[in-house]
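Researcher: I'm comparing several assemblies side by side, and this is the next one on my list. It has 454 residues spread over two chains. Same procedure as the others: predict the full complex and return the structure.
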Amino acid sequence: MSGAIEIPATVEAIKFIAMTPKTAISLFGIGLVGGVLSGFLGSGGAFIMTPAMMSLGVPGIMAVAANITHKFGKAIMGSKKHSEFGNVDMRMGLVMFVALFAGVQVAVAMSRGVLAKMGEAGSNLYISVVFVIILTWVSWFMFRDIMKQKNGTTQNTGKTPLAERIRNLNLPPMVHFKVAGVKASLWLALLVGFATGFLAGTIGVGGFIGVPAMIYLLGIPTYVAAGTELFLAIFSGAQGAFLYSLHGLVDIRITLILYLGSLIGVNLGAIGTRIVRGSQMRMVMVAIIAMVALSRATMIPVYLSDMGRITLQAGTHALVTTVSNVFLFGSGAVGVGIIMFWMFQAYRRAGNAALAGPEATKAEASS
Amino acid sequence: MAKKHVENKKTAMLQAFLCLIGTAVLYVFVFTKMDAINKILQSQTYYAPLTAVVIVLLASFLYGTAASNILKHTLQEKLKSQELREE
């Protein structure tokens, strides 16, 4: 998703890390995890890849630069794979991109205002609070919907009553999104794009909002939402790669090593979308979003302490930060673990079916 | 039909192999010429994004095509019987 691509005015010192085998293997693993999540959900790489790179000693701004530069190529190859499966609605992507871009600009202006008024700790607190409220609401909404579908209280059509109600507004002009198979008001698509961009610009993880918004507000199938989201990421990736490299912040070695993992991961994730139901994809998203929200909620006392509103001892400060990181990295591990588990199960079933096939054929032939 | 599939698989695997060689050449080139490339990337001129984008596009195309072709004719083919599409 088109995140808030803003280069800070005070760029921290550019530091190139030593590329030891251990660092390279770690970067490969980070890329693989981010790639699987992106390929499966259409988003969800950045929130874990950037802090993971920072924990390897990469300066924050260079971690963001490496991630967004690598996202450009990953999104191209990922959306190419998804379009092979008929999962990319380019018309929807282009409409959303225009509105989303405007949303990001408004959000960045607002966030700058908060930063100027409340300082860095206040800004962090603002972002975390918005993050927790929005992501908790999204994950709760999605969880409730999945449970309803599971209990059979709604028809399993992939279109929720809310999406139907909003679509029934029929505010002209209506646009037919062919690949997604929905006819929606252009204004609604623009509004969803703008809101998504605004939240992406505020909390930096637009995909977690964009994909659910496309599913629930526009009634798009989960697979198409994931593929279209990756298509959208091409634009933000291109913009980010251009801006960050123009400022000399891209360490191309990191980007190249990330590719070794992420391009395998993004293909694995996209193949994974073929063997699961839409509700399963949403379930993985709910698990990740909820854990990320929990991670941010854990950090709120730290930011309040940084602002001098509450007192936290140094040990508690470090402990809370560690707990928050455990939730954050745990969310990626849980997400990838579930996806890989389902793929492994499908692989075994396919193997059993292939074994049973010739046997069944033999039995048929002998009878 | 089966013969055509085998031919497609062979072509795809050959393409993947060539792309992997291309990837290796690109990576060796970038990592051995790192100092010169970094100088361009640090220049804060339009050559920096141009260089970064060319490297990124080449790497993602070559390695991405190789990964996609290999997985398409191995894992994806194996999982074909398990495909679901309920929405």
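Model: For your comparison table: The first strand of chain A starts at residue 174 and ends at 177.
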